[in-house]
Each structure stands twice: as structure tokens, then as C-alpha cells.
Amino acid sequence: MLLHLTSLPGPGGLGDLGAAARAFAERIGDAGFSIWQTLPVHPVGPGNSPYSPRSAFAGEPMLLSLQDLADEGLVPRTMARRRAGTPGRTDWRAARRIRREALDIAWDRFHADGGERDPRFKRFLRRESAWLPTWSRLGGRRGQTPEQLAFEQFLFDRQWKSLRTHARRCGVHLVGDLPIFVPLESVDVQGHPELFRLDAEGLPTVVTGVPPDAFSRSGQLWNHPHYRWTSHRRTGFDWWIERIARQLRLFDAVRIDHFIGFHRAYEVKAGARDARSGRWGRSPGDELLRAARRRLGPMPLFAEDLGAVTREVIALRDRHGLPGMRILQNAFGSPDSSDLPANHPRHAVVYTGTHDNAPLRGWWRTLDPVARRRAEGIAGTGDPVKGLVDVCFRSHANTAIVPAQDLLGLGSVARMNRPGTPRGNWTWRLPPAMLPRTRVRTLRTLLEESKRL
User: Fold this and answer.
1) pTM of the entire structure?
2) Is residue 16 flagged as an active site residue?
3) Which of 106, 214, 293, 328 is 20 to 30 A from 275 via CA?
4) 157 is catalytic
């Protein structure tokens, strides 16, 4: 199942690593699911996008459970119960106000009790020494000390490990997502400018995006700086290897977002109004992945091989044994689409849709008559959402992942992201009663009938 942590229900303005996350792991484990995929869990950047992280390594402190901190005596219980926003929507402004106040109190109590002498805290500092000093020096808001930022990451590490252990007891593995680029405002760019293509004033010379496609007629202008690959090569790709290693310390497996960027990346001149005038530049993904494997050994990664995929991208993916992706929503525009169920390879991960797609019920209403007839020929003429979810689970692909919105039959109002639109994204939340026991039993039956259990 695909569900981001911020989409969980509960107090404090957005979902977190606490009780609702543990309950979700229990429910999907009872239903027979063995994978819970989240979006990236780094500190979010502009527009609250998890794909524009302020750090490629740190965890988002706003995901910390205040209730769990209250149970440790680090914050007042009344603060942990504060509610904000409206049901079904995140409220990042309220979440930041509540959590920042709480984390300041937690730090004061930890510091007053001599917590910095705690052997667990010292071990954490040593283990994450490759990235933590940069985050602690550059990642804070006014008034925060480097020690406080390290403390917040220590809390994130403990709560994350607790959730991961709980999920494993439920038979559920956590799968993460590694955004291929980081924004100019990130501590990675500010702390290591030599690794990025910047001018003498520290501004990008070219920025990231994708050319015009089905999502946008003028392309998508992401505006991240591009990597200075010569500098990465000189270091033996240390930054990248530590980045992958960090993700594999957090997750059981990791999806590489925008995998085509490991072969070639779309470059748009800085200051351009849209992405139509860009060009493709080469990336040393083969060298990078070989260097990572030498250092880290076998890596449980898979590739988001979507977009302008070429034979060279496919060859790179296959050379490193990475499963690719198939998206059912992309299957019905052509009679020979590689996304059609009959064309799914076993070594792949199939989705009904991703966080960038409308939920199935909303997508179905936009289908043209020809594509709809093709879909009905495979999924049947009953409820299209149930039919396509069933098709997904019956795929030949080894792994099938379905967004929670599709498993619950929700419409476009539950969409997580609209690519190319800067506002109104990343706000959907799961209402508290959306996974009752009756629904869990129905989902388990679905998995049993599709031989996934």
C-alpha cells in the first residue's frame, strides 16, 4: 500500500510517526499487505513538497509524534493533544507552530537533564557523522543551536526505529523514495556548493525539469540545480553513496525517483520561464551505481523508470538488476502499451497509479471512449476501481503497490499531487474511520483471491 506519513489521521495538523502510524501498520498487516511505501521523509521544501527536500539525509522533525514525546516526559500532554486544521487535510502552518513550540520544550528538558551525555545520543552522533554536522549547522531556524537540531534528528531516529520494528512485527516492510534532485535552498547545496553547477554568486547556471509531456504542455520546471558530476566523480561519489546508505538504514527497500536522470537529465537555462527550451545532458549513473555496490554490497533498490525512457535507460536499469515500474493508468492509450498487464515482466513493480496520478475513480471519468473500452476489456464492466485494483494484484509482476486512495475507492478530491502546479498539493489525509475491520477483511480476501497471500 502507498500512503505518506503526513496523510495519516491524528492531532497536530498532519500525520506523524506515532499511534496512527502503528495502527495503520497493524491494519494493513492484518489485511495481508507486506509493503508500506511512503513518499520521502526528509524536511520538506517549497510548497511542502517531499520531492524538494531541505536535506537529502535528515528526517522531517514535523513527523515526530508529540504523544510519544509526552509519554517520555519531554513535552506536556496537553500540547500533544492539540488539534488543528480540518479533517482530511494537512495544515502545515499549524503543525509547524505546534511542533516547533513542543520541540523547543523537549530540547530544554533534555538539555537540563544532561541528555547530551546519554550514550545512545553519542552513538547516534557518531553513526550519522557524514551528514549530521552539515544539517546541524545550516538546517535550523533562528534561535536554534546545532545541538538542538542534532537532538531533533536523534528523536526522529528513535521514533522511526520504533515504527519500523512495530511494522516488522506486523509483517510489513517499509519502502522509501529517494528524490534524485535537491533544491538550491537545501543544506546539501549550501554546505557542498562544489558538488553543484553554480556560478560565482552561488546561483544555478542550469536547472532541472522535464520537457512537455502528458502532464504539462510547456514542460515542468523544477528549478533544482544540476549536479557537477566531475566533482562527484573525484570523490568516488561519496555524497551519493552515503545518501543511499542513509536511506537503506531507514527503509527495507528504496525507489529511485526519476531514474532516467541517472542516464541523462533535462537541463534548462536558469531564468527560463518554462521548460520548453531545455536540452538533455549525460549523467554517470553506471559509474555511480557500480561504486555504490562496491561499497554497500547488494542494494534493495527499484527504479521509477517513467517519462522519456530510452533504450539506454532500460539497459542501465537492467545492467544493475533493478526492477522497473508499470502503471495501469498508462496502459490503455495504446493497444501495445508496455503497461498493459499482458506485458508486465516478473521483475517489476506494478502500480494502479502513483502520488502524481489522480485516484482511479477520478481518472476513470477522464478516459476517452477508446481507452475506456480497452480498460473494460481487461477489468470488466463493473466497478472500474475494484476491477483495476484486482488486475493490479493479479499482475505477473513480483510486486504490486496500490495507493490507499484506490483501495478505498476515493475520487479526485483525494489526489496527492498535480505535477506542474505549485499550490494545493501534498494535503490529503486519511479520515480516521477509513480502514475499519470490515474493510480489512475485504482487502485480505482480495489478496487471497489474487494469490498475493
Assistant:
1) 0.95
2) no
3) 328
4) no
